[in-house]
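FAQ

Q: What does a record look like?
A: Structure on top, sequence underneath. For example:
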């Protein structure tokens, strides 16, 4: 995947707005801002800032990695639109990154081998995005329960003894607030696992909302 470095990575699936340039396996520049509803206001100024920090220019990039969800409908749209605009102008491929996989990869470097862990993020007052994993060896995870929508009332049935829970749905025993990956994790996942996902067909790249959003109309 060295032919796709440097990578510009965008994460906007939740409250965190995060931009990173990965120049090589050991060189990263990352800027984060966490606040509701700031993505549209801040994302391009953050992209400009990370270029300034790195000393790189758009023409130095070889690819763009973008977090694809599940997550915020608006946040994902903003992040993907920014990625598509830069990719189109610079004729760069996009590497779509599953958000929970980027989180799982990051967690797999911190948890003990054979740990079982799950990510559970709220969709609305009654539903949760859920996926569970097992750490097979350092830096390598396997999926136990595929990404799915779960009723909040049914979440406890998905959690076996010893499963460590991450996400914004419930507090975990480690007291760690981790509900979205940083853009560095998005870049790393794209670099290691994204070879088969490299895509120049921008029109066909859409976020993974998992849930259909239906606009409410007043009668």
């Amino acid at each position: 995947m060295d032919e796709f470095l440097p990578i510009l990575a965008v994460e906007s699936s939740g409250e965190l707005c995060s931009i990173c340039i990965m120049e090589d396996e050991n060189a990263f520049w990352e800027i984060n801002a966490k606040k509701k509803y700031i993505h549209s206001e801040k994302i391009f100024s953050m992209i400009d800032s990370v270029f300034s920090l790195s000393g790189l220019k758009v023409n130095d990039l070889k690819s763009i990695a973008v977090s694809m969800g599940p997550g915020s409908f608006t946040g994902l749209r903003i992040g993907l639109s920014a990625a598509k605009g830069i990719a189109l102008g610079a004729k760069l491929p996009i590497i779509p990154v599953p958000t929970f996989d980027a989180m799982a990869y990051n967690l797999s470097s911190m948890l003990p081998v054979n740990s079982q862990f799950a990510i559970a993020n709220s969709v609305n007052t009654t539903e949760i995005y859920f996926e569970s994993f097992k750490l097979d060896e350092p830096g390598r995870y396997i999926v136990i329960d595929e990404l799915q929508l779960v009723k909040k009332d049914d979440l406890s049935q998905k959690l076996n003894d010893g499963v460590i829970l991450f996400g914004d749905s419930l507090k975990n025993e480690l007291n760690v607030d981790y509900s979205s990956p940083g853009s560095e994790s998005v870049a790393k996942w794209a670099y290691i696992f994204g070879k088969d996902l490299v895509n120049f067909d921008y029109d066909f790249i859409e976020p993974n909302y998992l849930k259909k959003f239906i606009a409410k109309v007043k009668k």
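Q: Is there anything notable about this one?
A: The mean pLDDT is 91.
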